[in-house]
Amino acid sequence: MNEPIVVIVRSIIAFFTLLIFTRVLGKQQISQLTFFDYILGITIGSVAASLTTDLDSRAWPHWVGLFMWTLLVWLIQWITTKSRKLSIYLDGEPTIVIMNGKIMEDAMKKLRYRIDDLVEQLRQKDVYDITQVEFAIIEKDGRLSVLKKAEHQSVTRKDMNVAVQPESVATEIIYDGVVIYSNLRQLKLDTKWLYGELKKMNIDSPGEVMYMSRKQDGTLYVDLYKDHINRDNVTDITD
Amino acid sequence: MKIVKALIPIALIAVFVFVMNTAFIFHPFIKSIPELFDDIENSALNGDWDKASEKTDALYKELAQKKFRWMQFAIERKEMNNLIINLYKLKGCIKIEDVSGSVDALYEMRANWSHLGS
């Protein structure tokens, strides 16, 4: 047995299988993972690792294990999206630990959640005084959501009656010197307009541009490959 | 385009499943190895040790240098090692012209071969 070659082939199998299976499972954010999801991820990774390097067993049973774990995760995801009751049963639900400024001791006891944990997580939310909290909720992923009492909440522009422009997301027009024509068409613009704008900025061709984007209000952001930065004015933050 | 995008992962998975099961799928169709087992057994039982030795060398070439090359991705390291150990045991028995030892090693090889990749 040529072990390195077998490991290379098995690695390719495990790598692309994981890639395909994780794409099938969707784009659940890492920050939204519950403890069970986290354990599932570790288990699937562990099976994939065995598939790659455990040459004392065949690759096929490991692959079947990988497939089954993925199938079960997908099944749970499907069930929880179809049924709210099953979702609560399988994933749990958020728990209120501070309500109307009062600590819910019984709820905390059920969660085996100590007052130290609560205070620590409040500090992580920049709350150093528990009396400022109206509501605190332990989310399914274990993170704490905090609603401060009205008198301790930050003033917003709305509170001050300041008029604001709606924010918009910029659309990429040039990326790495290449014009993204589909985005240009989406913005109902053409190459004539693009070259005109570039000419205004003394840029001869899109190839000189590293990145160019346009906001809905027409504001352009352009970064050139040659930025002509005076090296003497560059702040060195390294050691 | 959507169909092609969906077909790529399906095709990849199909290739992986095939590679991981090549031994299981193809080894029942390989006739050369069982034929060599029979030839060696007959030669040993008839006391034709030169022919038995020649066929054992042929078996080694067929097994270790040809079949294991493409089967190695689908079988256990232990399965391959067991067959090679059986083969060397057979070589030793043929060298000392031991009929019962040769037949014993051959039947162990047959068993290991028949369970390969399953």
Q: How far apart lie the N and C ends of chain A? A: 49 Å
Unreliably modeled segments of chain A? none
Question: How far apart are the termini of chain B?
Answer: 38 Å
What is the tally of beta strands of chain B?
0
Shape verdict of chain A: flat
By DSSP, the count of extended strands of chain A is: 8
**Inertia-based shape of chain B:** elongated
What does the largest sheet of chain A look like? 4 strands, antiparallel
Query: What is the largest interface, and how many residues per chain?
Result: A-B, 19 and 19 residues
Strand content of chain A: 15-25%
Fraction of residues in β-strands of chain B:
under 5%
For the biggest β-sheet of chain A, the strand order reads 2-1-3-4
Catalogue the unreliable spans of chain B: none
Query: What's the rounded overall pLDDT mean of chain B?
Result: 88
Given the helix and strand composition of chain A, which structural class is it?
Answer: alpha+beta
Mean pLDDT of chain A: 87
**Topology order of chain A in helix (H) and strand (E) letters:** HHHHEEHHEEEEHHEE
- Report Rg of chain B: 18 Å
Structure description:
- The complex is a heterodimer of chains A (about 240) and B (about 120).
- Chain A has about 240 residues and is of the alpha+beta class.
- Chain A has eight helices and eight strands, in the order ααααββααββββααββ.
- Chain A has a four-stranded antiparallel β-sheet with strand order 2-1-3-4.
- In chain A, β7 and β8 form a beta hairpin.
- The longest helix of chain A is centred in the first third of the chain and has 24 residues, at about 60-80.
- The two termini of chain A are about 50 Å apart.
- In chain B, α3 packs antiparallel against α6 (about 100-115).
- Chain B has six helices and no strands.
- The mean pLDDT of chain B is about 90.
- In chain B, about 80% of the residues lie in helices and about 0% in strands.
- Chain B has one domain: Four Helix Bundle (Hemerythrin (Met), subunit A), CATH 1.20.120.
- Chain B is mostly helical and about 120 residues long.
